Amino acid sequence: CQPVPKPESRVEICDLSPCPPRWKVTPATPCSSSCGLGLAVQLVTCVQILHGQEVLQEEHLCPVAEKPLTSVPCVIRTCSYEWSFSEWSQCSTSCGNGIQTRQDFCLSSLTHKPVNPLFCRRFPKAVVVRGCSAGPCPEQEGTLSPGAELQPVTAATPLTTAAAAPEHRHKELDVSLSAGPPEQTKPGGGEEDTAKKSFLCVCGNLFLNATGIINMTGVESRDCTVAIGRPLREEISVTILESSLNCSAGEVLLFSGRMMWRTGCRKLPLSLINSRTNTLIVKQRVVLPGNGVILQYSSRTAAKKYYQDCDQQLFGPQGEIVNPVQLPEERQELVCRTFITVAPRQRISIRALHADLGPEGNHTHFNYILVRDVSTMKTVVFHGKQQFLWQSTGSQAEIEFHE
């Protein structure tokens, strides 16, 4: 272009109107999970560039349909273990309302084989019990099925009930599984009625007195389980007064609590067991009829504090669970728990009639209710305003209220 005269350089203003407001995304929190799928919360604001400066604007000025999510999925690394589930079972009823269940398994991501559930304990788990409906029953056409309408929540409404264990597990006992006191033996019943009365008064029961003696000799069942419960702040001590267990035949005595686990057979007489918490389960496994142990238990103030001030203990057969409400200025970094213990022959059902975890309860992993089945250490997590029904496999459960 050298032979052609070069025109003068010119700059012209083409548009004086400012750029329209736009959405701005700023990372606010790290990933909620150290492995596997989690959620990261990000700050979304509406801004506009005016005279070279970024100015914050009201959100309605930005296009609502284009607003980014405030919570986004994130993965830091693959977890070594994860929960897996079987298919849902058929509805428990042929008509009306029932439940469906499914089995959960803790899998190793390397071998894809089941491992001990303790490895998955800290990972949130989906529900394993859900409601189902098989349609109205013939005699109830045009009306609601039983349980289809929830009753209003009142101060006297029990949220936890102790359900009797499935009857087929106890057919060999030939006794009633009601939560009430055992029936009195009729006069003239003989030795057989006396032995049955002794079994009814001991095996499968929960003892709540401060002291007592438990005679587990001569029971008719191979396995005889009793539970001892005391208020929080106390711990239980058990002395074995007598033992006729045959160790060579495989007879054994098991003690289990939240912070201890012991088994034994030899040298049991006059040995001392300390629970270190306020509950203790004693299970006797015998092979030969007539054998067993006699225990004496007592309670005392715990030497070490094993609970938090906001924790509470409930014993069967029914009770109400209300999580402690803390004001924002009183916020503490605590996970409040409710411990539930019922008689070993019973099972626990927890029905949430009302749950409100706040506006963010459906979108974050920080606000949730965790229910743990102590016998299997399996946990289930509930979010948001879910009205759930949970059932235990054992006689102990724990509930944690997070955030």
UniProtKB/TrEMBL annotation:
Q: Where in the cell is it found?
A: Secreted
Q: Which GO terms describe its molecular function?
A: metalloendopeptidase activity
Annotated spans, Disordered: 170-192
GO biological process assignments: extracellular matrix organization; proteolysis
PROSITE patterns hit by this protein: TSP1
**First-listed, main subcellular location of the protein, grouped into a coarse class:** secreted
Record InterPro entries:
ADAMTS_ADAMTS-like (IPR050439), Sperma_CUB_dom_sf (IPR035914), TSP1_rpt (IPR000884), TSP1_rpt_sf (IPR036383)
An annotated GO cellular component: extracellular region
Pfam families in the record:
TSP1_ADAMTS
In terms of SUPFAM superfamilies, this protein maps to:
Spermadhesin, CUB domain, TSP-1 type 1 repeat
Q: Which UniProt keywords apply?
A: Secreted
Q: For this UniProt entry, which residues form the secretion signal?
A: none
Q: Which PANTHER family match?
A: ADAMTS A DISINTEGRIN AND METALLOPROTEASE WITH THROMBOSPONDIN MOTIFS PROTEASE, PAPILIN
Task: Please report the name of this protein according to its UniProt entry.
Answer: ATS13 metalloproteinase
